[in-house]
Each structure stands twice: as C-alpha cells, then as structure tokens.
C-alpha cells in the first residue's frame, strides 16, 4: 500500500497549484440543491417516505445530491484526469519506471479520487446541515457511506477510461452520467416508475447510494441499507479489478 | 574503478573478472506476428558504457523496455542485477534509472517538484528527496529554473531534467533510449559531458542511438542491431577495424546514375559503395586512392578522404544507412 500512497501524494502536490479546478465538481450538486430542491421544491410540497415519514422536498433531494457529489468527485479524477495521465502526459509510464506497479497506480488513483469525493461530500453535508436538511444523527455515517459511492464510480470510471481512445469518447461517459444523475431515484421516488422498469433503476449504482444516504440523513435506517452497501462493494471491487488489469495491459506492453 | 574499455578491445572476447549486470540469452520480443527482437545475446558489465546502435525499428527500444522491466519478455532469458524481471521487476527497477525516448516529465509540476515527486515514487524519505532534488538541479544546471513549470523549458533542458530525475535513486544502471535525438549540437555536447561524468562516477550506462557519432563518443562497447538481430559486437574501434578499412575516399558526382563510375574505380580499394549522390571507396590510403582514381580518368565533382566510422560498419553489415 505504501507506494499507492505516493501516487496520492503526487496528486496532492499537483492540486496545491490548482485548487480552483478542484472546486468545480463540488458546485454542480449545490446548484441542483438550490434550483430543484429549494426552487422547484416550493411548488411540490412534502413527500411521504415508504416508511410513512413526511419530509420536505429539499430534505428529500439533499441526500441524493450528496450522493451525486460523491459520484462527481470520484468520476472527475477517474475519467478525464486518468485519461490525460494515461495517454498524454505519460505520468503512469514515468511511475512504472520506478518500483511502482499497475496495482499501486490503480489503488493510488482510486484513493485520491476518494479523497476528493470525501471533501466534496463533507462540504455538501455541512451546507445541508446549515440549511436544516439533516434530520438524524445517522447522518454522521453519510460521509463514510459516500466513500462506497466514490469507490464504485472511481472503479467504473477508471475501467471505462481504459477503453477510451480520444476525448470525443468521453461523450459516451457523459451520456451515461446524465440519466444516472436524473433517474436514480434522485429527484423522485423509485415507486414513481412502473414496476416493470424498476430493475433498470436498480442497475444504477447511484440509486443504491442515494437510498443509503437518504436513509442516513433522514433517519430511515434498516438492515436493507446493508444490502445496498453490499451491492456497491461488489460492483466497486469488480470494477477495480478490471481497471488494474486494463492498466497493466495498456502500460506493460 | 577498473577501466572496462581497456579490457574489451578484442571483439567477441568477453572481459573476464567483470561483474555481469545484464545478461540476455536468445532474448525475443514479439507483438502478435511482428517480431521486434529476434533472439539476441547481450552481456553488460558493471561500469561500462554499452550501446545498441541501429536504425529506427531495429528493436532497440523494445530491448530497452524489457531491460527496464516494463515489457514482458516473449522468449529467451533475461537477468538484470542477478534477478528475473518477471519475478522481481519492482526490486530491479528500484536500482535502475530510466531516461525514456518519449518525454514523460510531469507537466503539472515544477522542475524541482518533478525531482522531488519522482524520488517519492521510489519510497525515498521526503527530506532525502528534497536534498537530492537540490543536488540534481545543480548537476543538470537547472537551479535557476527550479520553480518554473516544465513546459517552457527547452528540449535540452528537459532532457537534462529527465536524466537528473533518473538519478534520484542513485541507480547502478542508467538506461538511456535515444538520449540526444531531437537536440541541437550544443545541447548534445552538454548532455554527453554529463553522461561522461556519470560514467566516471561508476554508473553503468546502457544506451540506444542511431547516431554513430554518439555511439563512438560514449560507448566502450556496443552491438549493431538490425531487424531485431545483432549484426556485430565490439568496441567502436574494433568494429571499424574488423568491418571497414582505415580510410574512406568519398567521390561526389552531379549525376543520377553513378554505377558507370563505380565500375571504373573498381579494384582501387577493398570495395565500393554506391550512394545516391556519391561513391564510397574503402581503402587503406585515401590519398593514393585519389591519385589512382584520377589516373583512370574519373573526374568527380569533389573528393574527400576521411577515417572510417560506425556508419561505414553499418553500411557494410546491412547494406543500408543508419539515418534514412
């Protein structure tokens, strides 16, 4: 693990100079919270959760936006930045000339994207708290739980990026992220879908993340959340394994 | 330190009593059907400067990547520092310095941070990385650019920084892939000077080049590579002695077809090479050969006598020029 930590350190040194670029990914879910949560939410009124709890619409949306912050934080580094280092800057080629191996790179880059994701999530949680959108002490677990979301999207992002040929290909990744953001029971409950298509939503890792965060921040906690967490762990582990294999394949020819 | 050059002047005879750092036997590298390296035998000894000379596509870089433990061996065997790259890649790389052909400096970091962070890649403690970075900035003559980003640097500066970076772990072997390609003559000489200094301090240099002057300047011993195979091996001097004559008479003509001239000068030297714009006569005495050419009534545009170089060796071995 020690050399993976050095991969993280390289990114820390880099971002000391680029902290503004660091912040951009944080703002998107904040904008959503204000526009859809507060703005549109005023027209929607209260929501009744499956457990019978009644919450305001901003309270309903905030956990989903927190999950989205976790996703964004991880995806940025795992896709664009990853591609840049892989194909243009030859950052990884330089690393591989040292004792660092593909496994260290995959783990290190993932750890870094989790750090970034964690910072976004913490910031977002504090905003939600200030706005009175947190209803339970379970919310203390929101940040660690968001690590699972970061884990999945970091792994998926890196794996997907290993097949990207040029920057145009990122349109496909973007094309996948938009419906994921909008349709993963983020802005309306999964019950709104016809029963036949709910399985589609359940394929979305973000959906499982949203359910966990919503449960924690609104105090609607049950053993079912562990199942959702398990889904994230399994998908993330597979993605990480694929990413590491692909990196070795691409870099060690 | 022993002087390896003095022990290796006989071609084909390996120096005895010198530690072998790199040993390849029947080494092969294939990409699908394409054979990049086709069974080469190489031994590199501690303290020497060893070169792979050959044109682009000869298999030099593929060989270097295998030695650098970033490219799996397709066949044959390879031992580096007594270890197997397939099993001990990380441990070997910890003791290598690599100067790749393609610039891989970190464009997001300053000159100093490039050295510092690279040192951290080896797990070297932070304070030691800082100290080494300062020392290597001095070595690379880049102290006054320490806080600049990498991009504005000239090609020569970047290459010096890359070499400095490769030294951060005090490597026993420094691998240089085409170290001066793309540099202007002055920058090349500055770089050669740095490499001489390293060699004097005991670092084993392994380099590839398609410049015969670079090979002659830097290498104690080299192999001539062509199409994935080794065509000849020895010191620059011994290779020239073995495969070429002492002098070369170059005759320039302003004509399209030089073969009639070639036939007329036949027999004056050991052999005649026909290039697009000139004839090369391989002779022991260039002046005398010049007179003989004149006696046969051949009137070149200009003529020139020079010593044989590795370029002539390569031409002899492969029938082609090094740089095309």
Summarize this, please?
The complex is a heterodimer of chains A (253) and B (324). With 253 residues, chain A is an all-alpha fold. Helix content of chain A is 74%, strand content 2%.
Structural descriptors:
heterodimer; A: 253 residues; mainly alpha; two-stranded antiparallel sheet; 2% strand; B: alpha/beta; Rossmann fold; Alpha-Beta Plaits; 2 domains; six-stranded mixed sheet; 12 helices; disordered N terminus
Can you describe what's shown?
The complex is a heterodimer of chains A (253) and B (324). By secondary structure, chain A is mostly helical. Chain A is 74% helix and 2% strand. Chain A has one domain (2-251). Chain A has helices at residues 2-15, 19-44, 57-88, 91-96, 102-130, 142-161, 170-183, 198-202, 205-218, 224-251; strands at 46-48, 54-56. Chain A starts with a helix and ends with a helix. With 324 residues, chain B is of the alpha/beta class. Helix content of chain B is 35%, strand content 26%. In chain B, the strands form three sheets. Chain B has a six-stranded mixed β-sheet with strand order 5-6-7-3-8-9, sandwiched between helices. In chain B, helix 4 (111-121) packs parallel to helix 6 and helix 9 packs across helix 12 (310-318). At the A-B interface, helix 1 and helix 4 of A face helix 3 and helix 4 of B.
């Amino acid at each position: 693990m020690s050399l993976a930590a050095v991969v993280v350190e390289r990114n820390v040194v880099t971002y000391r100079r680029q902290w503004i670029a660091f912040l951009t990914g944080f703002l998107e879910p904040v904008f959503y919270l204000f526009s859809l949560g507060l703005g549109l939410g005023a027209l929607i009124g209260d929501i009744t959760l499956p457990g019978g709890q009644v919450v305001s619409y901003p309270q309903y949306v905030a956990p989903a936006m927190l999950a989205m912050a976790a996703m964004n934080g991880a995806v940025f580094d795992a896709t664009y930045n990853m591609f840049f280092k892989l194909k243009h800057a030859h950052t990884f080629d330089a690393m591989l000339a040292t004792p660092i191996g593909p496994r260290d790179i995959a783990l290190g880059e993932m750890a870094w994207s989790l750090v970034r994701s964690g910072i976004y999530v913490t910031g977002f949680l504090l905003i939600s708290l200030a706005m009175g959108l947190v209803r339970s002490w379970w919310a203390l677990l929101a940040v660690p739980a968001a690590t699972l979301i970061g884990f999945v999207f970091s792994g998926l992002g890196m794996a997907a990026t290993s097949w990207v040929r040029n920057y145009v290909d990122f349109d496909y990744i973007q094309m996948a992220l938009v419906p994921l953001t909008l349709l993963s029971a983020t802005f309306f409950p999964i019950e709104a879908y016809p029963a036949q298509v709910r399985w589609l939503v359940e394929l979305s890792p973000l959906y499982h993340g949203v359910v966990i965060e919503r449960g924690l921040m609104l105090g609607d906690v049950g053993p079912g959340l562990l199942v959702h967490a398990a889904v994230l762990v399994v998908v993330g582990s597979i993605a990480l394994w694929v990413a590491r294999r692909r990196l070795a394949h691409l870099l060690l020819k | 330190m022993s002087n390896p050059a003095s022990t290796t002047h006989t071609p084909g005879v390996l120096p005895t009593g010198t530690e072998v750092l790199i040993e390849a036997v029947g080494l092969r590298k294939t990409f699908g059907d394409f054979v990049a390296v086709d069974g080469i035998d190489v031994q590199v000894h501690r303290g020497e400067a060893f070169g792979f000379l050959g044109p682009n596509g000869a298999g030099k870089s593929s060989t270097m990547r295998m030695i650098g433990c970033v490219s799996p061996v397709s066949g044959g065997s390879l031992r580096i520092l007594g270890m197997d790259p397939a099993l001990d890649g990380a441990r070997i790389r910890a003791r290598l310095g690599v100067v790749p052909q393609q610039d891989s400096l970190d464009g997001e970091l300053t000159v100093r941070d490039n050295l510092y962070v690279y040192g951290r890649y080896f797990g070297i403690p932070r304070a030691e990385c800082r100290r080494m970075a300062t020392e290597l900035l001095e070595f690379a003559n880049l102290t006054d650019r320490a806080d600049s980003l990498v991009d504005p640097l000239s090609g020569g500066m970047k290459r010096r920084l890359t070499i400095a970076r490769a030294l951060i772990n005090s490597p026993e072997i420094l691998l240089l892939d085409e170290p001066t390609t793309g540099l202007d003559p002055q920058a090349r000489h500055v770089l050669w000077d740095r490499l001489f200094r390293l060699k004097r301090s005991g670092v084993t240099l392994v380099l590839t080049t398609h410049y015969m002057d670079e090979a002659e300047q830097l290498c104690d011993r080299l192999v001539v590579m062509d199409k994935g195979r080794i065509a000849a091996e020895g010191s620059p001097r011994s290779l020239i002695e073995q495969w070429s004559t002492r002098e070369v008479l170059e005759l320039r003509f302003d004509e399209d077809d030089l073969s009639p001239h070639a036939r007329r000068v036949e027999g004056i030297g050991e052999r005649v090479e026909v290039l697009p714009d000139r004839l090369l006569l391989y002779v022991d005495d260039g002046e005398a050969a010049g007179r003989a050419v004149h006696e046969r009534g051949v009137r070149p545009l200009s003529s020139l006598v020079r010593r044989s170089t590795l370029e002539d060796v390569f031409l002899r071995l492969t029938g082609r020029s090094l740089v095309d």
